[in-house]
Amino acid sequence: MKLEVKISSGPTNGPISFTINMAKRQYSDPKLYIPKVKGKPTVAPGKRWYVWFLWRNPETDKLDIKIKFSKGINQYQTVKERTQIGKSLVKAYTIALEKGWNPVDKSISKKKKESQNKIYTLRSGLNYALELKTRNIKESTRIDYEYRVSVFIHWAEKESKAGLELDKFTLTDFYDFMDYLELEYINKKTKQRLSNTSIGNTKRIISSLFTELKNRRLIEHNFIKDIPTIKSKPIKNRPFTFNELQDIRKYLEVHDPYMISFLSFMIYPLLRPREICRLKIEDLNTRDWILGVETKTENRSYSRIIEKMKPAIEAMQIEGLPGGYSLFTPVDKPGVWETTREDSRASYFSSRFSFTDSNKKNPYDYEKNPEKLTNLLYCCRYGNGNEASGDGWKFRGRGIFQLTWKSNYDAYYEFLKEKNIEWTYEGPESLSGEMHSVLSAMWYFQSKVLSSVDITSTTSSDKVTAKINKYTDQGSYDGRDALFQKTKTNINDCN
């Protein structure tokens, strides 16, 4: 489809006209097909993984030709390996399609092939440099690069600079971006402004991409590297005292023994939490007592395991386990941990040390203790006392209506006295019995529902439902009405 646009005013005496091509996209985005069994990815025999996308049919002009490629992906034996290879294939096919590759006749369009002098914008240039820079780096590093580039491009789009040609983006423009980071940008998760260290890291990453563009001769000079780094005051962490370490160990022995082994890898070999999360069974040589680990600065680093570490390792009972098992997992023993996000792994174990404030609740005190948890969640409301009063558990939901809160229990007791009902009432536990289970529900329905709805022979069941179940989905009203009519008919038949 073509649109012809005429411009009546311009730098020449006559009108200017040009043509805009509105060509349809010839393909859908490539995706990785992952077979599943009971909702989980599987590598079982016969369960084939492949990359697929739709191609536009020249006869129907619709995206109805399904193209599938596996390219050896099914040779790998684990979900993790196939997922990584599959994602790489998705990226490769995406690039090929963008460059004009035709999967039907295996050709590349001449127009794309001849476009050797492509003009990059700030947005497309940064994305191109990002693609080159992140080909052979760790996933955690790639995620950091992608996040900081997204912040930069978001700012550029807001300032109408994303579409500038690369050589039109100036040093002054980048200083504007630095001002944005220092004075305006708010982290969505923390709701805080960026630290000088974080701003410096963003500048460093964008600078590395501009260097990549310079090496590809897309720009003449990387002016960002000449910008001074903002000074930051390093945080000095106070080390634990010996007595504090003893207290921590005693606490963990009672509440979370598994974390003693995790801490041992931090204290003795001085590993970072991320490095500990990378450890596999195969990294521990218990015959020669040597530890191999993938560190931040080296691909592999080896060190001797000291005597104080050996009891913690022996307690984990790793002998005979597959070498590919993760040493630490959420199930408190070595095994398969499917997530590939190092952030997720490190955050999980960090959360198990998060209750350092004396005013915070220790989650392990409430774990598998419903009475203590209920007293916390239901305290200080609707007549219930504080957590120590035990009212949350005492006046928990009972009866067929699940009457809850001390104020409701007291009101029901007053109703019994007012009506001189002779059935024995021996406190909140009475509502667990058949008689009070039914009677309390009838009382609540009459006092809290019927009193606020004028019930007549013509009252809509929708009106009653809106009072009793005000969060009910609209789609279930018809079903409730049908049940109501059926119940009414059955009651009438009993008269």
How would you characterize the overall build of this protein?
This protein is mainly alpha-helical and 495 residues long. The chain folds into five domains: 27-110, no CATH class; 122-226, DNA polymerase, domain 1 (Orthogonal Bundle), CATH 1.10.150; 244-351, Intergrase catalytic core (hpI Integrase, Chain A); 374-452, no CATH class; 461-494, no CATH class. It is 42% helix and 9% strand. It is built from 18 helices and twelve strands. The chain has helices at residues 79-98, 110-113, 122-133, 139-158, 171-183, 196-215, 242-255, 258-267, 273-278, 310-315, 342-351, 363-366, 370-377, 391-394, 406-418, 434-449, 461-468, 477-494, and strands at residues 2-7, 16-21, 31-33, 36-37, 40-41, 50-56, 63-69, 101-102, 107-108, 284-285, 290-293, 301-304. It has a three-stranded antiparallel β-sheet, with helices on one face. Strands 10-11-12 form a three-stranded antiparallel β-sheet. Strands 1-2 form a two-stranded antiparallel sheet. A hairpin with a 4-residue loop joins strand 8 (101-102) and strand 9. Mean pLDDT is 80; it is low at 1-12, 14-21 and 111-116.
Task: Determine the CATH topology of the largest domain.
Answer: hpI Integrase, Chain A
What is the H-and-E element order? EEEEEEEHEEHHHHHHHHEEEHHHHHHHHH
User: Quick one: biggest sheet?
Assistant: 3 strands, antiparallel
CATH superfamily descriptor of the largest domain: Intergrase catalytic core
Number of helices: 18
Point out poorly predicted stretches: 1-12, 14-21, 111-116
Level-2 CATH architecture of the largest domain: Orthogonal Bundle
Largest sheet, spatial ordering of strands: 3-6-7
Secondary-structure-derived class: mainly alpha
The CATH class designation of the largest domain is Mainly Alpha
